[in-house]
Amino acid sequence: METVKEPLRLLEIERELAGPDGRSALAKYDSTLVALEQRLDDAMRKGLPPEEYPKAEQLKEANTLARKILRLAVRVDG
Q1: Is residue 32 classed as helix, strand or coil in its secondary structure?
Q2: Helices in 1-78 by DSSP H: which ranges?
Q3: pLDDT per position in the chain (78 positions), as tens?
Q4: Buried b (16+ CB within 10 A) or exposed e, 7-41
Q5: 0.85 exceeded by pTM
Q6: 17 contact partners, CB below 8 Å, separation of at least 6
Q7: How far apart are CA 16 and CA 24, in angstroms?
């Protein structure tokens, strides 16, 4: 069994989102996910091999869910 040597990045992201600069962290991570979505859209527009299309669709769906989860993770006050 392999030992994890680095702290989990997901926990770091969660702490950032819950912190005082949560909205800034949300904007940073959301912009990364938006860029991924744009690259996926470009790749799909240019054409993918048939075996890659289902993978790209799943990645797009996961990306959309990640963006929704980010918004849920940041508590909106006022």
Answers
A1: helix
A2: 9-18, 22-46, 53-73
A3: 555 555 568 888 888 888 888 889 999 999 999 999 999 999 989 998 989 999 999 999 999 999 998 888 776 543
A4: eeeeeeeeebbeeeebeebbeebeeeeeebbeebe
A5: no
A6: 25, 26, 29, 70, 73, 74
A7: 9
Paired tokens of 14:
């969660």
What distance in Å separates the CA atoms of residue 58 and residue 36, rounded to the nearest whole number? Answer: 13
Collect all residues with Cβ–Cβ distance below 8 Å to 74 and sequence separation of at least 6: 17, 18, 22, 23, 25, 26
| One-letter amino acid of 11 | L
